[in-house]
Amino acid sequence: MELITSIRKAIDYMEKHLTDNISAQDVADQVYLSPFFLQKGFSLITGYDLGEYIRNRRLHNAALDLKETEDKVIDIALRYCYETSESFSKAFSRFHGVTPTQAREGADVRTFLPLSIKVQVQGGIQMEYKVTTMFQFKVIGFQKEFDYETAYQEIPKFWDEICEKYAANVYAGNEPASPQEKAIIDYCIVHGEVFERRSEIPLPELSNEKVFPVRGKVRAVFDPSMKWQLVEEYGVGSFEEQSDGSLLFEHEYADDEGLISWMLSCRDKVTVIEPESIREKLYEIACDMAKKYERKGKKHGKQSTDGD
What we know:
The chain is an alpha+beta fold. The protein is built from 13 helices and 6 strands. The chain folds into 3 domains: 2-104, Arc Repressor Mutant, subunit A (Orthogonal Bundle); 129-202, no CATH class; 212-286, Alpha-Beta Plaits (2-Layer Sandwich), CATH 3.30.70. The strands form 2 sheets. The chain has a 4-stranded antiparallel beta sheet. A two-stranded antiparallel ribbon has the order 1-2. The two termini are 50 Å apart. The chain has helices at residues 2-16, 24-31, 35-46, 50-68, 73-79, 85-96, 100-104, 151-171, 179-186, 208-211, 227-234, 256-265, 276-307, and strands at residues 187-190, 193-196, 216-222, 239-241, 247-253, 270-274. The chain is globular and about 75 Å long.
């Protein structure tokens, strides 16, 4: 709930400063979050990043100013933080599909109203689980700072560089060729110190089957745009890239309702292959929604005909 509150405050701040030259850092400072986590949370909940939201709201308000005032185009452009009328006109045309002049003359424009965040909790899905105490362990870590605006592109590159430099040889099944590679196989390294792995300590059973009872396995094809969300939530080994760029995803799941809710949240970015029971349930939901909107369309069409 704290994230929701922060996003609401961020929206209020952006709405009050649409005519000011604000950045993601400025918005993040107002809600005491890092720009990276605010961007990530805002995008996850709203579907927009901060820059896109500010830009869309400015262009919406600019269209209203064109229709309701006699202000010059350059004045409106400067008001909403565009440096030239040309850059404003290009952005305006991409967003609204018409030029500022056409909008002023009465052409239809796109509406983009302020976001309102509401939380609705329904039902309850009970998952069987147990808390397992893990054994103590230490890890090898590599540290590097990234700019939040390019993090999603740069972090995978950094990961590939580390794997290529320190792990490619041993991951290929070869004998260690350096002290670092030997450490990956035999030891753990922390701040340059080497300590023996305590392999004699019996490890507890921590498989998913023991901690979270598995109901089945889902196979689905995801749009390439979902790649980093899958990497972040399920790991790089959860899918295979196909020749057409799509992502073949396979993973175990614990309950039907949770899986269905997740698939619906992905909208048209995913196609479930199996299990058939999940496909049938998604089909039923889609048909029910189609029927509801089909009835609405027929009703509105009839009213329009009578009015003519």
